[in-house]
Amino acid sequence: MTTISLSINERPIQIEAEPRTLLVQLLREHLGLTGTHCGCDTSQCGACTVLMDGRAVKSCSILAAQANGRSITTVEGLARSDGSLHPIQRAFSEQHGLQCGFCTPGMMLAAVDLLQRNPDPDDAAICEALEGNLCRCTGYQNIIKAIRQAARADRPTHSNGA
């Protein structure tokens, strides 16, 4: 067993795990954070995407021990402390950016990473950011609309006085 110390959703965690434990297993099986899905076990689908130190990573391809000392954000950590939804969560709901919901947590976290790096992405940038996240239900159009809406939600509005 190895001791892993990390921050998950802004909470410090110290936990014992076998050295071969994947980050997705640590989150789901040891910590009960089941919003992180494991869909393919080969890092192809993106359902396991989380943020590690603010960047989107596929947690099925990272050992939990590699996350030692890092900050992890899962879909459970997106909502605000007052319980209000993160702009990306609100936009996915309002734009019908989900159907079965299996890919949704990974899509949302990939989108959060994109919007942190590029607050005003065009559709090509959105599609590129989602390349590693597969959806079998929506055809992506509503997901793209949701990300555009979330980007607008974070921008201040300006009045031109007209």
Main sheet, how many strands, which sense, barrel? 5 strands, mixed
Biggest sheet: strand arrangement: 2-1-5-3-4
Number of strands: 5
What is the general shape? globular
Estimate the strand proportion. Answer: 15-25%
Distance between the termini: 66 Å
What's the Cα radius of gyration? 16 Å
Q: Ranges with pLDDT <50 over ≥5 residues?
A: 158-162
Output the helix-strand order: EEHEEEHHHH
Q: Considering DSSP H and I runs of 4 or more, what fraction of the residues is helical? A: 25-40%
What structural class do you assign from the helix and strand content? alpha+beta
**What's the number of helices?**
5
Average predicted confidence as pLDDT: 93
Q: Would you give an account of this structure?
A:
- By secondary structure, the protein is an alpha+beta fold.
- 31% of the residues lie in helices and 15% in strands.
- The protein contains five helices and five strands.
- It has helices spanning 23-30, 87-94, 104-117, 123-129, 141-153, and strands spanning 2-8, 11-17, 49-52, 55-58, 71-73.
- It has a five-stranded mixed beta sheet with strand order 2-1-5-3-4, with helices on one face.
- Strand 1 (2-8) and strand 2 form a beta hairpin.
- Helix 2 crosses helix 5 (141-153) and helix 3 (104-117) crosses helix 5.
- The N and C termini lie far apart (66 Å).
- Mean pLDDT is 93; it is low at 158-162.
